Amino acid sequence: MSQTPPDSPQTPPAAPRAGGGRAARTGFDITIVAAVLVPLLAVVASLLVDTGAEARPDQPPEEAALTAADVVCPAGGSKVQVASTSGASGDLQVRAGTKVDVAAPVAPGRTTEVDTGKPAAVVSGTGDLAPGLVAQSFAQPLASFDCRAPVYDYWFTGLGAGARHQSTLQLVNPDEGRAVVDVEVYSADGLLDVEGLRGVTISGGESRAFDLAKTLPRRDELALHVTVVRGRVAASVSDAVRGVAGAGRNGDDGLGSQDEPATSNLLLGIPGGSGPRILMIANPNTTAERATIKLVTTGSTFAPSGVEEIELPPQSVVPVPLTKVLAEAGKDDEAPVGLLVESSAPTTASLQMFYRRDLVRSVPATPLEGPGTTVVPAGSKTLVLGDATGQGVVTVSLWDADGKELPQQRIEVAAGRADTYDVPDEARLMSVEAARTSIAAAVLVTNADGATLLRVREPVSTALVPAVSPGVP
Amino acid sequence: MSLPPVPPPPPGVPAGAPGGTPGGPASGGVVVLLVTHDGVRWLPGVIEGIAEQGPLVSGVVAVDTGSTDGSRDLLPADYDLVEATSSASYPDAVRIGLERIATTHPHARWVWLLHDDSRPAQGALAALLAASARRPDVDVLGPKLREWPSLRRLLELGVTISGTGRRETGLERGEYDQGQHDEEREVLAVNSAGMLVRRDVLEELGGFDPRLPMFGNDLDLGWRAAAAGHATLVVPDAVVFHAEAAHRGLRRTALTGRHTHYQERRAALYTLLVNSSAIALPWRVIRLTLGTFVRMIGFLLVRSVGEALDDLAALVSVVGRPGQVLAGRRERKERAAAAAPDKARVRRLLPPPWLPYRHGADFVGDVVSAATQQASDVAERRRIAAAEADPSSQAAIRLRAERERDEEDELADSGAIARFFTNPFVLAMCAVVVVLLIAARAAFGQVSGGALAPAPDGVGSWWSLHLSSWHELGFGTDVPAPPYVFPLALLGSLIGPTATVSALMLLTAPLALWGAWRFLRVAGRLVSTQGAPRWLLVGGATAYAITPAVSGAWGEGRLGLVVAAAVLPWLAHAALGFAEPEADRRWRAGWRVGLLLALVTAFAPTSWLVAAVLIALVLVAGVGFARGAVMARDVWGPPLTALAVPLVLLSPWWIPALGTGAGASLALDAGRVPDEQVGPLDLLIGRLGDLGAPAWVGIVLLVLALLALLPRATRVPVILCWLVALVASVVGAVLGTLEFSLPALDTPAGLGGPLLAAQAALVTAVVLGAEGAARAGLGRTVRAIGIAAAVAAAVVPLAGLGWWLTDGGDLSSEDDSVVPVHMVQRSVLGPEHGVLVVSGDIATGLTYTIHRGDGVTLGEQEILALSPVDAADAAVVSDALSRPGADVADRLGALGIQFVLLTAPVDGAVAASLDATAGLVAASSDAGTQAWEVERPLDPEAVAGAGSALRPVLLVIQVAALLLVLVLCVPTIRSRSRA
């Protein structure tokens, strides 16, 4: 009964306490040593603790060669010019409307023209010919319609839905399954609720066109944001003006799209002449924003005198007349070749111009990460380079219609200016590659009837294979 | 009803000639029938007692059943000695005796049965005969039996038998005879020791049943007598002292054997079966069989394994040999053929049917009260032990003074309600509980969020998680369920899963408060006799109770840590039992600590390591400082037992975990991975992750714990608290170096267990230090510091509570599942109706989870996080999401995936590629998300897997060990010992 067990940690033993008291008087007290040492060690040990695993880094996708690719050429053009930068030879398939596929033979450097008629055409390449598909659709009087692989967001700025300015939205589903898109419409009065443009269904292989003048008749300028909800859809806009400025300026042109709004939009390629020029800026933000305009010449970038800061009401489209500003900015070599729109929040922009009474639409150029390519029509054309991030050299490779390579051209570029290069008339395929800098490029094609602007893109040659991993349950 | 004098047998009364006159006044002749067997210890007294009856005894027939101790030589010459063999049972001996009486005393009307250990008091026979004269209708009379040699305690005043076979005396155990039962009444039976019975009646009844050789034959005889219409009367004026030598095992014979309990129980069962009516017989068999199992559980609960087995053996012996019972019944039927049995009399004399249940309730009450008072005070018992060791010490004198004071207090005690409402500390604790409940209000009802997955819809999910070795989750996995699922399933079976989680999140803080109060009170009393001031206990307990909340564990939904924190003070309280002066209590403490440690470990696995290191350290230190004391088995045994118990109880978790590559679960906190980040000093300031209270509250506690080292009186206990904190910190530092790479992410080890232990130690240190400071009083110079410290000490719980009141953490009652309802409706149909939930985009990588059943619920998240992903299965998902081939839909169907769901924001490229995949058709989904249905057959066996044969074994071990530990935890009930 009287046996006493050892003290558990929580139990104070009687003996050491009494002993400690006695020892204290003799000068040495082990409890004092322990009272210092034990807490000190505890604090030191707890200071050593530092857990926390780093979050696993994002897993970038792998690039893999495409095995099948499509580019969609909107309706409006009459001839589709196709090429492949894959370096392989073979037949591309071109399907227009419900027609059976037409084979378009391609070889390295060679372009082929296919007469597709008015309907939209889907150009497909498989196997070796899948990477590097390039196409453009042209019409006379000079107009170009942007052929591209379907993406999931399209921003179109400066559309008309009235009698004089009529735009048609075209939605093409290249696949067999059903596709669904949502279209948001911005106007001068803000976001519009348009019944027929919500949840638009496009069945497999179908192409649907919306004449905005019928869908939502209005007189102001509009902007559209097309979101693909389901499936793949190529969205495009063909723009037409009838009798603008009283002088019977008519014309058609394709209106290119932007993938997303940006705070800095560089519109490259301004044809000469004194026709009307109107800049349209769309502010999709829910706040009022501001924008400034700079002119880009081959020598510099500068703010023109007499142009105020532009106020952008929330979710609205603002037209900015620039005819006079551009006309007065300079002549010949000092004439502006580009327009830089900088805004306080991401916006979209486009230019509506006329050249020899023909409509020319320009949209911001996308900086190229790698070689950019486009097919070009025969005739006079100018390559406009801009948005260089620094001093660099751009190599321009050219091929004629038979695939014969023309002499390469090296152009020195620098930040803060644009550069132009007059492309030989016989060139039909053009490739632009920048070294030591990134670059944006556009090709201004002119002839006696009018002009059009071509975009220089990186052809899709690889697919991104996402990294797939188990998630946290 | 005066107190009957207890005449000690006059020492020198000669065992002279008992009245040779045959036949006393009204007797018609009483012959004593004395059966002896090795009764030399008691026989002289018995002979004296018979002599004292005087001339009423007309003769003594002594039947000796083969005594070997010289009993026969003690018998007076005038006794008519009949010698029988040692194999003769009591009924045999009585039969032999009756035969002898028939020849030697043919006119004797009464036979007085006496045992060699039953001594009649003076006048006993006279009183019996007087009663028989008063009540001529009575055929059997019995005396009041008192204990021999104490002489004062009542043994029996007539007996009866309950429906469960219990011998009912109607007396409390060890009741003193104060004449409280002195009332002549009819009873079912009287003990054969001192039974006065008409000879003809005894012969008519056929004597005692030879199938009841030793015990219980008196009850059977009484029952038969009653059934035959004979009355049995107990006469309290007649007193016989009875040593109950055979019953108490003082005398072993071939007939009693070693197992007297077995014999008694067998006799009781036999008596019930043989005497009950034929209609009631099947019901009696069933009831006695079930009753035996209930009784066995009761015996096992109090660790009387032998008696439990005796009960079982008795049942088997009686029910297994129906021939005996049937023969007995036949005999009774033949004898009673003449007249119908007097059922009314028997029924009247049997005890009321509710009696066994009252005994059951009393038993439970005994166990509960023993359990609750058990650890009430280690400190008290240590002082008592010390005082007993040295009665002249100061401690002993103080103890006596305290006891006197307590007795006075008890006399002056007012009502419980008045005490409740006038006690400021009780009111303060109630207020704290109310505030704790308000602060935890987010946990009312359905609660999930942070690391806490929602509770499953039914408790069946938890049971199946616990019981099966293969889980149809994800791609199917054999990673074992986390250990806390078992206690959750047990609780959930009572109140449902949602209420279980809610109750745990709500009520654990009050439970921790209560436990901390109990622990701190006893710890305070161990340090000094008066104990810590109660305001200190309120503050300390509150500071501890909010530890899970202020650390952030509660707000992050770390249910495991919240529960572990509530159990920890009870564990610490039980661990104080290692310091008990009695070995038995130390063993009980060992088992109790083991059970609680298993519970804490189930909810916070790393706690076990802290306990292990701590116990190892204490034992090693003990060997160094007090080798003699520690080397005793009952000193080192209990702590090591406590460490081993969790290993056995949790074996269905950790053994398969190691076997399936999920060993990381041994070092992870319960809940969603990854475990919270713990930075430098966080262990001591009690912060887990970034959802805790401001760090300064924890720093104040740390500083106070350092200041607690100053008061000399309590310095050693405070250092011991710091030692606990040191061990926790070191364990934390070692665990902190670990990092586990799980399929989905990397996670550090869970430091919740060490953190709770460190916080508990610091709170205890502050309370003990403050107690020391308060008791010693402070010098003028340090008084200012003391006051500042007191204010700071008050700030810790108050600031923590205030912070908690305003911060709800990550918890919410909302369902954050992204899976649309229509898919859930399908997925609950079976495990093959899975939903592949995909998030992320191509640029940063896609991640997927698989929703099956009602989604990832509590207990499943750890399994999924730890399950290795089969490369082939992962490849199917990877192909489907990146480069879907033509057969992708078939492969998804074979994996038991019915839907593919892309969560917002949807990557259009992924969506488009799925749109273009044959066999996947668009399904409706919530705004911003996209879904496809797999239009291919789903494999019903997609996630099925082979179970492990090991699991049933482990589960049986677990349950058996749990029952064993529960039984071993129960305090020893002293009153059960018979001596």
Description:
- The complex is a heterodimer of chains A (473) and B (979).
- With 473 residues, chain A is mainly β.
- Helices cover 9% and strands 49% of the residues of chain A.
- In chain A, the strands form eight sheets. In chain A, strands 19, 20, 21, 22, 23, 24, 25 and 26 form an eight-stranded antiparallel beta sheet that branches. In chain A, strands 10, 12, 13, 14 and 16 form a five-stranded antiparallel beta sheet that branches. In chain A, strands 2-7-4-5 form a four-stranded antiparallel beta sheet, with no helix packed on it.
- In chain A, strand 29 and strand 30 form a beta hairpin.
- The two termini of chain A are 56 Å apart.
- Chain B is of the alpha/beta class.
- Helix content of chain B is 52%, strand content 10%.
- In chain B, strands 1, 2, 3, 4, 5, 6, 7, 10, 11 and 12 form a ten-stranded mixed beta sheet that branches. In chain B, strands 16-15-17-19-18 form a five-stranded mixed beta sheet, sandwiched between helices. In chain B, strands 8-9 form a two-stranded antiparallel ribbon.
- In chain B, strand 13 and strand 14 form a beta hairpin.
- The longest helix of chain B is centred in the middle third of the chain and has 31 residues.
- At the A-B interface, helix 1, helix 2, strand 16, strand 35 and strand 36 of A face helix 13, helix 19, helix 24, helix 26 and helix 28 of B.
Give me some keywords for this one:
heterodimer; A: 473 residues; mainly beta; eight-stranded antiparallel β-sheet; five-stranded antiparallel β-sheet; 36 strands; 9% helix; B: 979 residues; alpha/beta; ten-stranded mixed β-sheet; five-stranded mixed β-sheet; 10% strand; disordered C terminus
